[in-house]
Design goal:
alpha/beta, Rossmann fold, Tyrosyl-Transfer RNA Synthetase, Structural Genomics Hypothetical 15.5 Kd Protein In mrcA-pckA Intergenic Region, Chain A, 3 domains, six-stranded mixed beta sheet, five-stranded mixed beta sheet, 19 helices, about 45% helix, globular
């Protein structure tokens, strides 16, 4: 088996491949160009996109060139895969701003010094905006049958739930297939990688390339990553774990990995760090908290650099001391209207991924503190007078979550 595909499997990235033996032979023979598409619906990417980024990083490590497709065109439509409602349409200015910010993330994770392996950035708006509708239907649309399109999960699930699916979204899979065809033609790209929910879209692209040009192209998918708790990784809009220090501090990013469920730690060490697999195997029997720190340090260093990882580790160490003031924590500015509400509303604002019922349970179990003093009353209001001395208060939620609240 090809070395890239072997490590791809060993790290837990592999789900499906269109023609694995043929792809393996090709990868053994030559360096190829492969792409993953990222729509530009948000101001940056979050950890829900990290697995795909790690795939491109691994591809580059094994001597192949990554193509990063930023969907300036498809973002204007919306991918129905895994969605229960139509995507909000963004302005062109906002999409361009998002694309520029997202590019910065890839420039951190992917090496740019080797011209032969340097990532290629493309925006599908370049070709999708020039399509002639009549010609597109005649030349490309003829290869797609409604019967087959209705069998894909992205369409089938929406219809089964009797949720609205616009004709605009229904066209998404054809446009994604056309993206692969265009990249095969213009950039000699013969592999598309994507999440398992993209399988139907990727297969469409492989078949379109074969029918239109006779070229062999391949598809490779990754599993949907769920946390041990059963929730999707990074898919919630609340408390998104951004890959951008302007949206989430390096300390809170470090904390995300440090708070990994025990059952996920070894899996995440393989998936989201550059640690050699033998090294992970050698430390797998270590204390679970040591492994979580190893994960947090390595994942944070990859995105924010070693200094920020070390700084975050030291800050966490000091913050967890019972009498810590929390002065070095990244601050969260709170307006007076939030401050005038009770402690439940304040925590809900600061940490949106905790439900209000869970907050009340934490209060009853003495797990909520302000400046290291237990809060027993869910109607407690953090008064402005508490800020008078130092300008902030330390809010602790359980043993692991600490926030510096600034008024």
């Amino acid at each position: 088996m090809n070395n890239f595909l072997k490590e791809f499997k060993d790290r837990g990235y592999f789900y499906q491949c269109t023609n694995e033996i043929e792809l393996s032979n090709l990868l053994n023979k030559e360096s190829i160009n492969a792409y993953i598409g990222f729509d530009s619906t948000a101001p940056s990417l979050h950890v829900g996109s990290l697995l795909q980024i790690m795939c491109l990083r691994l591809l580059q490590k094994h001597g192949h060139r990554p193509i990063v497709l930023l969907g300036g065109g498809t973002t204007r439509i919306g991918d129905p895969s895994g969605k229960e409602e139509t995507r909000k349409i963004l302005s062109e200015k906002k999409i361009e701003s998002n694309i520029n910010n997202i590019k910065k993330v890839f420039k951190i994770f992917l090496k740019t010094n080797n011209p032969k392996l340097k990532p290629i950035f493309v925006n599908n708006f370049k070709w999708l905006s020039k399509l002639n509708y009549i010609n597109f239907l005649r030349d490309i649309g003829r290869h797609f049958t409604i019967n087959k399109m209705l069998t894909f999960d992205s369409v089938k699930l929406r219809l089964e739930r009797e949720q609205s699916l616009s004709y605009m979204e229904f066209n998404y899979m054809i446009l994604q297939a056309f993206d692969f065809y265009e990249l095969n033609k213009s950039s000699n790209c013969n592999l598309q990688i994507g999440g398992s929910d993209q399988w139907g879209n990727i297969v469409n692209g492989v078949e379109l390339i074969k029918r239109e040009t006779g070229n062999h192209a391949y598809g490779l998918t990754t599993p949907l990553i769920t946390l041990a708790s059963g929730t999707k990784m990074g898919k919630t809009e609340k408390g998104a774990v951004w890959l951008d220090k302007e949206l989430l501090s390096p300390y809170h990013y470090w904390q995300f990995w440090r708070n990994t469920d025990d059952r996920d730690v070894l899996k995440f060490l393989r998936m989201f760090t550059d640690l050699h697999l033998d090294e992970i195997d050698n430390v797998k029997d270590k204390n679970i908290n040591e492994l979580k720190i190893l994960l947090a340090n390595n994942a944070t260093a990859m995105l924010h650099g070693k200094k920020e990882a070390e700084k975050s580790y030291k800050l966490a160490k000091n913050t967890f001391k019972e009498n810590s003031t929390g002065e070095n924590l990244p601050g969260i500015k709170i307006t007076n209207d939030i401050l005038s509400k009770n402690i439940v509303e304040l925590i809900s604002f600061v940490n949106k991924d905790i439900s209000k019922s869970e907050i009340r349970r934490l209060i009853k179990s003495n797990a909520v503190k302000i400046d290291n003093k237990n809060i027993h009353d869910e109607k407690y209001i953090v008064g402005k007078n508490l800020f008078s001395d130092k300008g902030y208060v330390k809010l602790s939620i359980g043993k692991k979550k600490h926030f510096k609240i600034i008024n």
